[in-house]
Design brief:
The chain is an alpha/beta fold. The chain contains 20 helices and 18 strands. Helix 6 runs parallel beside helix 11 and helix 13 crosses helix 20.
C-alpha cells in the first residue's frame, strides 16, 4: 500500500484506516510476533484477527442505536473499557490495548509511528473450548458450571454497585430494554410469530408491574451492579482448566449496570435452550448458595423471558439481513422461533417440586443432595450453610457454639428453618424444583414444609436417608472442611430425639440406605414419582447400584 493511500485514510479522522483495514490485517508483517496466516473474523461491530498466539479485536467505525464507535477517540475509549471490565474475570486473556500505527514500512502494531487504530489485545484460545462447543460434544460437567456460579457470585459481590442517583438499572430501565427487543419482534412474519410476540409483550408489561417494587428494592439493596451483561454460552471458554467469561459489554453502561439476577439469567436461559437443564441448575444453585440471594427467584422468570427475547431479536435481525429463503436465513428464523417458544415457556411455569431430606447427621443427606442438583435437576438449600449465613459466618467457619447453645440453640434452629421455608417458597413459586437439605427430625418442621408446598400447589416428597450406626459414626469422625459441625455427641442426641416418619409421610417418601452406593439417576426418578403423588401412595424405594 502506498504512503498516499495511507495518508488519505488517516485524514478522514472518523473511519481511520477505512475499508482497507480488514484485508491489511491479514499481512503477517503487521504483527510484532510470529503470525503465520492470520485469520479474520467479523461481527456486526468488530473485526477480530487471530494472529499466532494472540487475537486482536478492532472496533468497526459504526454508529448504531445501541453503540457509537464512529470516532477513533470513542473506539479507543471502548477498547480500554473492554480490557478493564473483562480483566475482572479473565486477566490472563485480556492483555491490554494495542495500537495500529503508520510507519515508513507500512502499517504495524505496537511500534513507534502515527496512531491509526486501537485494538483490544487478547491471548488466543481454542474456539472448541467455548462453552457452546463443549456442550455440543458433551465435554463439560455440572461441577464446572457450579465452579463458575460460585466465582460469578464473588465477582458480583466485588463489582461496583450503581450510584443511587443514576438512571441505570432502575425498573423503568429494565422495562425499556425489554420493550426495545419486543419492538423488533412485533414486526415479524408470519402472523403467528407476531401474535406470540404480542402475547409476550403483554406478559412482560403486566409482570413488570407486579415486580416493579421488588426490582426497586433490589436496586436499593445493592443488587444492581456492573455485571458482564452478555453472559451466554458463546461468551464462556474453558481456559487453563476453568470456565471463564469473556467479551462482556463495554459499549453501553445501561446493559451492564443491571440486576445481578439478569446477568445470571442469561446463562441459565442459554443452557436450558441447549437442553442442559442439569448444567443450568448446577450453575444457578452454586450462584445462589454463594451469594445467598435466594430472593432473586422472584424476579428470575421475568429476566429469563427477557434474555430469551434478546436472543430472539438478534436472530430476527440476522434473518432480515440475509437473502430471503437462503439456508442461513431459514436457520436464523428457526432460531428466532425457538427462542420465542422458550420465552413463552417462562411465562407459564407451574410451581416446582419441594423435596426435603430426613435423617440424622452422617446419613448421607448432603452427599445425595449435592448430586441430585444436576440429576433432578433442582436447587439445593442447606441448613448448615444458611444457619451460618444468618449468623454472619462463612460456610466453612467454625462457630465455636457448644451443643444446644449459640448457633445451635433452639431459637437459632427455629430461625434457620424459618429462613429455609421462606427461600424454598420463593424457589418453588418461581418454578424451580428445590431440595431442602436438613435433618428434619422434628415432625412439626416436616409439616411446616409440607404446608409450604401445599400453599404453592407444589408436589412434595421426602428423601428418607438411613445408615447403620457404625457407618454414621465413621462418617462424622472423618469429616473435614464441611459446613456441618455435628459431633458424635450430636449424633447420639439426634438418635434419641428424632421423630420417625408417620404413615402418611411414608406414602410420599423415598427411603434409601446410604451404606450402599446409590444409583443417583434412579433415586431422582423415584423422587419425581413420589412427588407426583399428591395424596401419598406406595412408599418409594431407590435401588442401589
Amino acid at each position: 500500500m502506498s504512503d498516499g493511500r495511507t495518508a488519505a485514510t488517516i485524514d478522514t479522522g472518523r473511519s481511520a484506516a477505512g475499508p482497507a483495514l480488514p484485508n491489511a490485517l491479514l499481512d503477517s508483517a503487521v504483527y510484532p510476533h510470529a503470525a503465520p496466516a492470520p485469520q479474520l473474523l467479523e461481527t456486526h461491530i468488530s473485526w477480530i484477527v487471530l494472529a499466532g498466539e494472540y487475537a486482536y479485536k478492532f472496533k468497526k467505525p459504526v454508529h448504531l442505536p445501541f453503540v457509537d464507535y464512529s470516532t477513533r477517540a470513542l473506539r479507543r475509549a471502548a477498547c480500554r473499557t473492554e480490557v478493564e471490565l473483562n480483566a475482572r474475570w479473565a486477566p490472563d486473556l485480556y492483555l491490554g490495548v494495542s495500537e495500529l500505527v503508520v510507519t515508513a514500512a507500512g502499517w504495524r502494531l505496537d511500534v513507534a509511528g502515527t496512531p491509526l487504530e486501537p485494538a483490544v489485545r487478547m491471548r488466543r484460545f481454542d474456539r472448541y473450548e467455548e462453552l457452546d462447543a463443549l456442550i455440543a460434544r458433551a465435554a463439560v460437567a455440572p461441577a464446572e458450571l457450579a465452579a463458575l456460579g460460585t466465582e460469578l457470585a464473588g465477582w458480583h459481590a466485588a463489582a461496583r454497585a450503581v450510584a443511587p442517583a443514576a438512571a441505570l438499572g432502575t425498573p423503568a430501565a429494565a422495562l425499556a430494554a425489554a420493550r426495545e427487543n419486543l419492538a423488533t419482534l412485533l414486526g415479524l412474519e408470519p402472523a403467528a410469530r407476531r401474535e406470540r410476540a404480542a402475547q409476550l409483550a403483554a406478559w412482560v408489561r403486566s409482570q413488570h408491574a407486579v415486580l416493579e417494587s421488588t426490582l426497586a428494592a433490589r436496586r436499593a439493596g445493592g443488587r444492581v451492579r456492573e455485571c458482564h451483561g452478555d453472559l451466554h454460552t458463546r461468551n464462556v471458554v474453558r481456559w487453563r482448566g476453568r470456565l471463564t467469561p469473556f467479551d462482556g459489554i463495554d459499549f453501553d453502561p445501561g446493559l451492564r449496570f443491571i440486576d445481578v439476577a439478569s446477568d445470571v439469567a442469561f446463562l441459565v436461559m442459554d443452557l436450558e435452550r441447549l437442553g442442559r437443564a442439569d448444567l443450568a441448575c448446577a450453575f444457578l444453585d452454586a450462584w445462589l448458595s454463594a451469594s445467598g440471594d435466594y430472593a432473586a427467584a422472584r424476579v428470575l422468570p421475568w429476566f429469563l423471558c427477557y434474555r430469551a427475547l434478546v436472543r430472539a431479536k438478534v436472530d430476527a435481525l440476522r434473518a432480515g439481513q440475509l437473502a430471503p429463503g437462503s439456508p442461513p436465513a431459514v436457520a436464523a428464523a428457526a432460531e428466532c422461533a425457538a427462542f420465542l417458544a422458550l420465552a413463552a415457556g417462562y411465562t407459564a411455569r407451574g410451581p416446582g417440586r419441594l423435596i426435603i431430606t430426613h435423617g440424622v447427621s452422617g446419613s448421607g443427606k448432603s452427599w445425595l443432595a449435592t448430586r441430585l442438583v444436576a440429576a433432578l435437576p433442582a436447587i439445593r438449600l442447606r441448613s448448615d450453610v444458611e444457619r451460618k449465613r444468618l449468623a454472619g459466618l462463612a460456610p466453612q467457619a467454625a462457630s465455636g457454639s457448644p451443643l444446644d447453645a449459640g448457633l445451635y440453640s433452639a431459637a437459632a434452629t427455629r430461625g434457620a428453618y424459618e429462613r429455609l421455608a421462606v427461600d424454598a417458597g420463593e424457589l418453588i413459586a418461581a418454578g424451580f424444583d428445590t431440595i431442602v437439605d436438613a435433618t428434619f427430625l422434628d415432625a412439626a418442621e416436616r409439616g411446616r414444609f409440607a404446608a409450604v408446598a401445599h400453599a404453592a400447589g407444589a408436589p412434595f416428597a421426602i428423601l428418607d436417608c438411613t445408615a447403620p450406626q457404625d457407618v454414621l459414626e465413621a462418617r462424622i469422625a472423618a469429616r473435614r472442611g464441611d459446613p456441618s459441625e455435628a459431633t458424635l455427641a450430636v449424633l447420639a442426641q439426634q438418635l434419641t430425639r428424632a421423630t420417625p416418619l408417620g404413615a402418611r409421610e411414608r406414602r410420599s417418601a423415598v427411603a434409601i440406605d446410604t451404606a450402599h452406593a446409590p444409583d443417583v439417576a434412579a433415586l431422582a426418578a423415584a423422587l419425581r414419582a413420589a412427588a407426583a403423588r399428591p395424596g401419598g401412595g406406595p412408599r418409594g424405594a431407590a435401588p442401589a447400584s
